[in-house]
Design goal:
The complex is a heterodimer of chains A (506) and B (430). With 506 residues, chain A is α/β, with parallel strands linked by helices. Chain A folds into three domains: 233 residues, Rossmann fold, CATH 3.40.50.300; 181 residues, P-loop containing nucleotide triphosphate hydrolases (Rossmann fold); 69 residues, no CATH class. Chain A is built from 18 helices and 22 strands. The longest helix of chain A is centred in the middle third of the chain and has 16 residues. The C terminus of chain A is likely disordered. Chain B is mainly alpha-helical and 430 residues long. In chain B, helix 2 crosses helix 18. Classes of the chains: A alpha/beta (506), B mainly alpha (430).
Amino acid sequence: MKLELRGITKRFGALVANNNISLTVESGEIHALLGENGAGKSTLMNVLYGLYIAEEGEILLDDTVQKFAGPGDAMKAGIGMVHQHFMLVPVFTVAENVVLGHEQTTFGGRLDLSAARAKVREISDRFGFDIDPDALIEDLPVGVQQRVEIIKALSQDARVLVFDEPTAVLTPQETDELMIIMRQLAESGTSIVFITHKLREVRAVADRITVIRLGTVVGEASPTATNAELASLMVGRAVELTVHKNAPELRGTALSVKNLSVIDSRNQIVVNSVSFDVQAGEVLAIAGVQGNGQTELTEALLGLQHHVTGSIELDGKPLRGYSVRHILDSGVGFVPEDRTEDGLIADFSIAENLMLDRSSGAPFVKAGNLQLGFRATFAAEKIREFDIRSQGSEMEAGRLSGGNQQKVVLARELSRELRLFVAAQPTRGLDVGSIEFVHTRIIETRDSGIPVIVVSTELDEVVALADRIAVMYRGEIVGIVPGNTPRATLGLMMAGEHAPETKALL
Amino acid sequence: MSDTSVPAAAVAAAPDPGNVKKDGSERWTQTLRDITGGSAMISVLAVVFALIVGAVLIAFTNERVQETAVYFFSRPGDLLQAVWAAVAGAYSALFQGAIYNFRANNFLTAIRPLTETLTFATPLIAAGLGVGLAFRVGMFNIGGRGQMLIAAGAAGYVAFAVELPAGIHLIVAILAGLLGGAIWGGIVGLLKARTGAHEVIVTIMLNFVALYLIQFLLRTPGALQAPGSNNPKTPAMLPTAVFPDLFGPRYNLHAGFLTVIAATIFVWWLLSRSNLGFQFRAVGQNPSAARVAGINVKNVYMYAMAISGALVGLAGINQVLGTVTTGFGAGIDAGIGFDAITVALLGRSRPWGIFAAGILFGAFKAGGFAMQAAEGVPIDIVVVVQALIVLFIAAPPLVRAMFHLPTPGTTKKPAIRAVKARKTNEVVAK
């Protein structure tokens, strides 16, 4: 079945999640939708699946315009979705899950499970899935659960299948098997939309590639395109950023990280034996496509991760294994990646947010009492110094714009006496003016002799700020290169390749 | 890349099955926040509406109204008059039983209902403060019953079994009770912090543990049981450990009311002037940001539940050392631990709001008896009115949570919450 999206526009309030996106998927084609997290891929697919109603644009199946009021309509029209997070009931059997929502009953309202079993067997035989219809979902490995999702979609006669980040939860072997299944499905005439941000998979399986960035289609590519081309399409930014900075004044190694590994709550190694040094007075940028271990690395530095091995030393003193409180007191300033979640308390006033990480001692607290007078003066001063546009220090932080919220976080972190400054995605979601402000502040911090780590998925930001660039891929540092490394090389490294010239630099 | 809300929106639409439960619990946390975080106006309106519905019920159940309704079309005036008489009579009896009795001969007698109201309000305010404090830290303490019983048992034991000079005896008994409540609440905090156990489950279970423990002790000679008695009841408190009457023996109001005023001031200071309270509120509003800011979230849960338990325990102390000084049984909590939830909700979890709400509920209790005695209106009407107040306060967010409707505000909100759910639980689990 041929699927066509024409001029889809979806807004959330002031934010345009999808801007005039058009896309055609031919029958039997695997069409990859490539883009960073937050580019608008999932929103687009939710529009297709009837979960969101687009403000503009239309959906066509075999050249007929469709109107979907909900997922039910989309399913009836032949669209199936394999969600990133499976929509299965763990305590039900495979057959029960497959018929869930479309149960056939015999006389007296009894479930006709034998028909369901037969259907599961028929589909799983067709694709060689080898699935027992009576197995409980919770007993099955993740890869098999995903096949149940596929069967579920196929049992509704889906002829367009959307895979939303299907490999996020799979092991490499399961991923390879999924690729084969996708190929088989395509050969039997099913159209497949494959959403991902992993370049390797796209090139392995896709017939055509559409790259989405910031809610718009920025380009189409064929699977023969190089990783570097795809990566630069994905992460590039139209606005050129320039930060005025002089050559760094290096003052000796301050932070030394050796063989640092992090295991996450799902027992997966997300940072794998990473080593690097940061000198006082330089900016080390950590680049990479989102989800390659950067978040966990910064969290490990701050003591927020719990299964960390290796060593972290700041000015010769070990940091690993200490509490967040101790690490903050050791002079680490931290701008978290998710400002609204980890950086601020939305219902607290600006003044309260400015003292958030100093709630246990002087100067904000004396003998258990909050020093409200001092806090008000301090807040007024910081609001002026960091140009936080607000209605005064008692205004709730949640009512500030994103840029001003980030200024509150920066003001708080930079007003302590720092020995290391870590900024994760410091300009995510900010307007150009705020970006410039944040960048200037970061360079000022560097020039005052503090080692700075900037984690960013945006190549322009990395290039603008970095004195050295460490590129992460799959939890490892692919290489550490000078700040003036060409973007093409960085793009290659972000795709996990040790290009000859980058190897030479290592 | 430029905005975090897009992927998050998708997350909201397609939640992780592993996170569904967490998403659900987060929804309830948000509901809790909505309920406790609204404006005082909603509280006032809720009371007004509840009284109006109560009036309708009073009218319906009134015999005279029923009689006149039969010939409504021939003489409608009779019905309206009967309705007015029933409602006005009931509410004026409520008022006279709770605030000021106009029919009394002198002022000192006339003002007696007000002191009754304050006497009833005393344990409600104390327990309400405890529940409200837990609300502010993002926790639901429904273990009021258990905490009150343990505190009452500890304070009562010191009060009847230990002999100390007057004054000191009372203070030691109070401290023993506070400690008992703090331990019973602290266990909950400890379990939540160390194992991630949900405080609702733990508090409910500890209610049973406390009840049966106290019942056992009440049947054990040498423990709480009165010597030479077979009844599950303690001996009378020694006079040295009893709260003195505030205005002489003519009124029931005792010095326990002063402890409750002190507790209210303490909670106000704690929440708005102390750094511990700052950390409490930070954890209550956004545990992940609190954690990133170096606040020890686990310790906050433990301290908060211990203080919450001590405050609820103060209600139990007031019961045994002030209201029922002749010895108590296992029913000494009198459902106050649960009424306290209502009081905390009506008071929006603000110390002075809870103080006011406690007095209002005390007035309902005091006036309810008078209403029943004077007008024959069943006291259940008062309970219905109380229930309606909670319903009106809690209903909008409750309905939203039940039917998964979006919270009014930006479309971004559910998205942020989906992510928050994961972290909130991680904070607890770690």
